[in-house]
């Protein structure tokens, strides 16, 4: 497909199936309503059995856990089976879509696109690197905001952004990620959105760690 059609299809997919949930998650991205429960102690930053090296690693790196380990109250993706009344289903639920298959397709496509783009293709898909990468980054960003990416997906995304810092030990031929490539302005803008949302998740995890530490510390002082 040509570039405008590719971008239009991806925008239609996001607007039709995911936009309400993305907006709800974005509006609460800076709200931290965290229940005080024993699950706060599961934060990796607070584990007493961590070695000094592990404590330094978790405190200074860009570690982001799986989305299900976050405790802050955030809007959840409304599914069709959550409603029993037909009228509510029609008014409140977007058309169903297989998010798991979409995530697998997008991650594989993004890996293929960036690895091939680092070799300076003459004729990229869609006619330009912007038409090739922007729709894929938009979908990845949408899945990231929705909380649909797992730990392996996030680590893979970080590797594609900067393999020199987040690359795997098996990466010998892949040393040029998005940060090392000469990108068009639309790709840079979309990459900034992805980095912003990654930082939001890391901030949320650290805030949950601080609250978990404070809750236990105050509890010990009062006992």
Structural description of this entry:
The chain has 223 residues and is mainly alpha-helical. It has one domain. Helices cover 58% and strands 0% of the residues. The chain has nine helices and no strands. The protein has helices spanning 3-17, 19-27, 52-60, 86-92, 99-117, 129-146, 151-161, 163-166, 185-222. The longest helix has 38 residues, at 185-222. The mean pLDDT is 77. One of its GO terms (biological process) is striated muscle contraction. This is Ryanodine receptor junctional solenoid domain-containing protein. It comes from Rotaria magnacalcarata. Residues 1-223 form the Ryanodine receptor junctional solenoid domain. GO terms for molecular function: ryanodine-sensitive calcium-release channel activity.
Which labels suit this protein?
mainly alpha, ryanodine-sensitive calcium-release channel activity, RYDR_Jsol, Ryanodine receptor junctional solenoid domain-containing protein, globular, 223 residues, Ryanodine_IP3_receptor, single chain
């Amino acid at each position: 497909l040509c570039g405008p059609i590719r971008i239009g299809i991806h925008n239609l997919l996001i607007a039709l199936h995911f936009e309400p949930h993305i907006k709800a998650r974005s509006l609460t991205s800076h709200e931290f309503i965290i229940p005080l429960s024993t699950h706060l102690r599961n934060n990796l930053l607070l584990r007493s059995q961590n070695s000094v090296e592990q404590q330094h690693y978790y405190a200074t790196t860009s570690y982001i856990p799986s989305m299900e380990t976050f405790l802050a109250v955030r809007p959840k993706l409304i599914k069709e089976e959550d409603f029993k009344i037909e009228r509510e289903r029609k008014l409140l639920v977007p058309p169903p879509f297989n998010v798991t298959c979409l995530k697998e397709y997008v991650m594989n496509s993004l890996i293929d696109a960036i690895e091939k783009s680092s070799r300076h293709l003459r004729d990229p898909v869609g006619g330009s690197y912007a038409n090739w990468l922007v729709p894929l980054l938009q979908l990845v960003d949408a899945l990231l905001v929705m909380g649909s990416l797992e730990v392996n997906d996030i680590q893979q995304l970080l590797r594609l952004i900067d393999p020199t810092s987040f690359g795997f030990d098996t990466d010998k031929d892949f040393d040029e990620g998005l940060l090392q490539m000469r990108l068009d302005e639309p790709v840079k803008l979309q990459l900034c959105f992805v980095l912003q949302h990654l930082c939001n998740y890391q901030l949320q995890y650290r805030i949950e760690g601080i609250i978990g530490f404070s809750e236990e510390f105050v509890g010990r002082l009062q006992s």
